[in-house]
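Appendix B, record 7
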Amino acid sequence: MKNKRTFWFPVIIFTGILMLIVFSSFAFAQGNGAPSGPHYNLNIIGVPQDKTADMTGNQGHRIFVPLERKSAIWLQEGPDFQVLDANGTDRDGAKFQLPDPDPNDDLVLSYSVYARALGKPGGQSKTTTCFIDEYGATYCSAETLTLTRSKGPSKFTNVSKYLLTLYLDIDGDGIPERVGLFDDKAYQYFWDYDNNGLKLAQLRFYPITTDLSGQ
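Structure tokens (predicted):
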């Protein structure tokens, strides 16, 4: 019995270390700044001319937006990530389905989104999460995600607070508060995408948490 315990003790330690390495590898960033592991990739592509084709139900992992003006990417809650309408250059805007990132309403997001700017240096986009209430009034977060394509390698950063939550005075008491996307206090959500020459904004959605409860 003594020899048996001696044999299994280092094996158990080695197995535990191996499992820790496998589990932790998800959180370690790659050279491009993004976590490793499975993810959903979405490309927001700026184009100089509006698309004329009907892209409803077109699926894919890309959305087309104007290269030099604003457009709306409407957000629909669903069980998975899907591009429902890829044409963000027309009057209706694009539509993107994604799960509720804060189902417990505790601002501990069940998944995270990372973003980076690609394409010719000099382009920039500004994305603000907004909603329309039941009376038709539009409200937007006080926080805006700015992506700028600079020279050199472009790295991903965690932009979950910009795209998956809103920070605003939602109840009119003069004090801003953070609420998660698809919160019951709002009605129709969308990303207000203001493009200034950015040809490609790349988003990656990872099944890892981001805790915004203290922000």
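Remarks on this record: Helices lie at 2-24, 160-163. The chain has two helices and 15 strands.
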